[in-house]
Every structure is written in structure tokens, then in C-alpha cells.
Amino acid sequence: MTQKEERAADQVVGLLLAAGGGRRLGGHPKALLEHRGRPLVEHAVGVLRAAGCARVHVVLGAAADAVRERARLEGCVIVTNPEWERGMGTSLRAGLGSLAGTGARAALAFLVDQPGIGPEAVARVLAAYEDESSLVCAAYDGVRGHPVLFGAAHWAGIAVTATGDRGARAYLKEHGEALTLVECADVARPFDIDTPQDLAHLE
Fold it and tell me: Are 18 and 31 within 8 A, CB to CB?
């Protein structure tokens, strides 16, 4: 591991947003969907760790107790979002709030319902980390996507603008000049598991 990789592993916390209730999936919580024989939330934690995130915070909401019971999340900080039904923005705020006092200088936000994004893409975004002013997005053929790395200097601004299902979209749009895009289309497919048809992507 290079010195820069060691610094990123120490200063960047993986932030997995896994609170969704799967409304369009008939109310099946996304964290508990099965992928490669294990709950999707467990798979996503493995991706973050394989990419170089030594610390991982997991935001749960729908069926949080069942997720804790069924998924192996040892070593993760579990954050419960009681407002998860109000959208991803509440989970992002809860996750960023959980980083206070941890010494983290950046958060690498990752969505539980994108199993086509593996360690290679996440590691590329992590490698673009410089300091707490960093703002980095994966891009797919030039289009901004996930995961997204937020330096700590941006957390307060994101918390103000993260509403509904928009997450950090408004903040990223407003701060486009500070944003670094990292092309990942050659190593990942950024589909979401949102509808019954999307379940075909799970293995």
C-alpha cells in the first residue's frame, strides 16, 4: 500500500446508504435483497472494504432490526435513520452526522442498490482523495454517478441541501467547479435495483 493509499484508508470513511424500503419492489427492503448468496448490504460493505475503506458506517432504516440480525456487519458503525421514509437525503444527513468526532476528513458515499459497481470503481474514487476540500464523483461515459467522495469541508453545506431523494445532487450541481470526475464506465455498471425487472441483475 502506498503512503497515499494509507492516508486515504485512515482519513476516509466508507458511508453506505442502505435504509431504503424498496417501495417499487413491493416493500422489500433493499438491504436484505440477496446477491451472491448474502444480503445486498453485506455485499456492499465488502466492496467498500475491498476498495480500501478501513472504516465503514452503514445507515439503516427499513427493517433495521432484521438487517442487523441477518447481515454480517461486524466492525461497521451502524447508524439508524428513523426518518428513512422521507428519502435518501435524510440518510445522507444521518450518515454524515455519525462521522462527528471520528477524525474522518472525508466520506465516500456508496448506495446499497448498485451491485454493478465493484471495488475497482470505488478504489478509483478513493484514490482521488486529497484533503477535506476534496469533492469527487465516479462518472460513466462522462455522466456523474456514484460513489461520491465528500471532504469534510462540504458536509455542512450538503446537510442543508440534502432533502427528499435528491441526496447531494443540488450541492454537487452548485459546486461543479470544485468537482473531480473519475471515469469508471470501463470497470462498473451503474444500474439501480429499483423495480421487479431490475432484480434480474442480482446473482
Answer: yes
d(CA 19, CA 38): 17
Q: For 119-132, what is each residue's pLDDT tens digit? A: 999 999 999 999 99
Q: Which amino acid is at 198?
A: D
| Cell 452503514, residue located | 58
Identify whether the C-beta of residue 48 lies closer than 8 Å to the C-beta of residue 77: no
139's CB contacts (< 8 A; 6+ apart) are 145, 181, 182, 183, 184, 185
**CA 163 to CA 107: how far, in whole Å?**
18
Beta strands in the chain, from DSSP E residues, in sequence order: 12-18, 34-35, 38-39, 55-60, 77-80, 106-111, 135-140, 143-151, 180-183
Beta strand 135-140 pairing with 180-183: parallel
Task: State the cell numbers at 161.
Answer: 441541501
Query: Could you count the other beta carbons within 10 Å of the beta carbon of residue 114?
Result: 23
C-alpha cell at 98: 455519525
What is the per-residue pLDDT across 10-22, written as a single tens digit (0 to 9) for each?
899 999 999 998 8
**Is the pTM higher than 0.85?**
yes
